[in-house]
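Hi support team,

I've been running sequence recovery on a batch of backbones for a student project. Most finish fine, but this one hangs at about 90% for roughly twenty minutes before it completes. I'm not sure whether the input is malformed or the queue is just slow. I've pasted the structure tokens below so you can try to reproduce it. Let me know if you need the job ID as well.

Thanks,
M.K.
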């Protein structure tokens, strides 16, 4: 698994992909949070609060993470190297985990610089430090689980087609469905149970600063579910 992981990380940073992903994520967030006028602008918000970042980031990641994961297996299929990879003395699960953690680490690296936002808003508070740190760290914790789930969905989608664009579209659709789709269905059907099937419900719950084991179990279950589906798809292709 470690060999696959190193190969994935090296491939990200040996090409512009890794740098582009990090740059695009930071630039988009930076523009919306600090430059563009609107509801996401921290300076216009009037409070020392990072809720606009945590409202915006999941939507940017819905498109960014599939862009990272779309090549995971679809590229191997297109180049005809998947069969060679599957014949190596490594389990299919370890292959999946290597690809998964390679993409996950890249996204986590993109998130690290956003801690500067916390410091900046902390200093801008009146008085200095007037920032709800419990809610902020809870939101970051929820964002990590959200990223883990998005990545698992993206890696799974990459096994469904050798065309990277198709894999990207499938991943975006599935991420959108699980993040906000169930909430829309719940509003239409007036069902609280359906709402709880969506990532948005559990992410918002963690953003309040209270870490509920039910929210953690939900995100871990989604991640494991799609990793298992990816492994089953690989086994079918072997």
């Amino acid at each position: 698994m470690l060999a696959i992981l190193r190969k994935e990380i090296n491939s990200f940073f040996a090409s512009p992909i890794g740098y582009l992903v990090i740059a695009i994520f930071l630039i988009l967030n930076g523009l919306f949070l600090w430059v563009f006028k609107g509801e996401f602008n921290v300076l216009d918000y009037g409070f020392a609060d990072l809720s606009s970042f945590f409202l915006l980031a999941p939507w940017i990641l819905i498109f960014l993470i599939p862009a990272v994961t779309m090549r995971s297996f679809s590229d191997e299929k297109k180049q005809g190297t998947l069969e060679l990879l599957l014949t190596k003395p490594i389990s299919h699960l370890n292959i999946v985990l290597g690809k998964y953690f390679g993409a996950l680490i890249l996204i986590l690296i993109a998130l690290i610089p956003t801690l500067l936002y916390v410091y900046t808003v902390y200093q801008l508070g009146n008085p200095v430090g007037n920032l709800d740190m419990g809610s902020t760290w809870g939101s970051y914790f929820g964002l990590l689980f959200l990223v883990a789930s998005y990545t698992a969905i993206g890696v799974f989608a990459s096994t469904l087609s050798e065309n990277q664009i198709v894999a990207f579209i499938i991943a975006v659709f599935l991420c959108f469905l699980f993040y906000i789709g169930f909430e829309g269905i719940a509003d239409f059907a007036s069902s609280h149970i359906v709402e709880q099937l969506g990532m948005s419900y559990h992410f918002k719950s963690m953003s309040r600063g209270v870490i509920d084991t039910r929210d953690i179990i939900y995100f871990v279950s989604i991640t494991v579910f799609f990793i298992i589906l990816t492994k089953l798809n690989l086994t079918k292709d072997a």
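--
Follow-up from support: It reproduced on our side and the slowdown came from queue contention, not your input. The mean pLDDT is 86. No action needed from you.
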